[in-house]
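name: query_chain
kind: protein
chains: 1
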Amino acid sequence: MPPDLRGLGQIMNDIGAVAQQDRCERVQAGQLRCATWNVHRARGADGRVDPDRVAHAIEDALAPLSLDVLALQEADEECRPHARILDVRRIAESTGLEYIHPPECRWGPESDGFLGTILFLSPALKRIHMDVIDLPGHCHRGAVAVETACGDRPVRIISTHLSLFQPLRVIQMRIIGQYLRRRASMQTILLGDLNEWRPWGGAMFHRRLLGTQLRGPTRRTFPSMRPLLPLDRILTDGPGRVREIRVEDAEALTAASDHLPLTAIVTVP
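structure:
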């Protein structure tokens, strides 16, 4: 390798090491930078399916944010065998996150996620337990739940993609609530494409349904070319809080999917 390229490589390694150190310190302080994005099976605003475009958009617009949590929806094919679409190892490498799905937390051997939902987490988050949750619907839906340690504080991270039909969303959230009641009590972060267009959320976020009160600001994320509806959410229950929420609208992101990514910092006191 020419000397100038070796020097560039060392600079990039040093930058990566600094980013990982910053990420570790932020996690230890209970500040998780989260992102959720429905990548629409790599079908962009122009109707063209291009997984490489999604990977480039993540590298250019999301990786520089030094994320701790990245949740993707519609990231595998819709129909069985729900085959993989994206290069998850490339995404993990570009973001500095870990692709966390063992075989038992994928839909099948040709999938990278569970019914299109894929989670990437910071190496600084110690993973304790992981489940997948089947959700009913005309289109098979699911959720991925991971219990982690954020420093010395337990926190559960759930990513999901809910139904377009409001009564089904209520049923799906009730099932998630039943799952929460069976697991240990801890702060829960819920992020994903919840397909709820009303800012107040309706019955699906009711405390009696979930057993906890999930809150977070809303921002319009759909459609990507002219966002009108807050379909994508980042929520948490007490004592945590969602702050610095924003829609990432870089040109590369707008072109790569019909949704825009949503990012926020979630505090884990």
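note: Residues 3-267 form a domain with the Deoxyribonuclease I; Chain A fold (CATH 3.60.10.10).
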